Task: structure prediction
Amino acid sequence: MLTLVLENEKTSGSLLINKFDADDSTPLRGARFEVLDQTGSRVRFTLANGVYSVSDAADALEQLETNAMGTALLQNLPF
Result:
């Protein structure tokens, strides 16, 4: 008999969010939004070089905002 033990490894991923105007499809600069985890708690981020990264720093942001192109790049999202 052969027994295998497999463990799930936590990993992280990225997400590119694009926000557009519903009427004319122009990019929405400055659109604000929040990210919630599976329990409904707000995920906090730091912003560096135009990229949001998950963080538990004291000054981490709970509200994110799209750039001039209507996009927001989120990194280090836990899976």
The chain has a mean pLDDT of 93. The longest strand covers residues 71-78. The chain is about 0% helix and 35% strand.
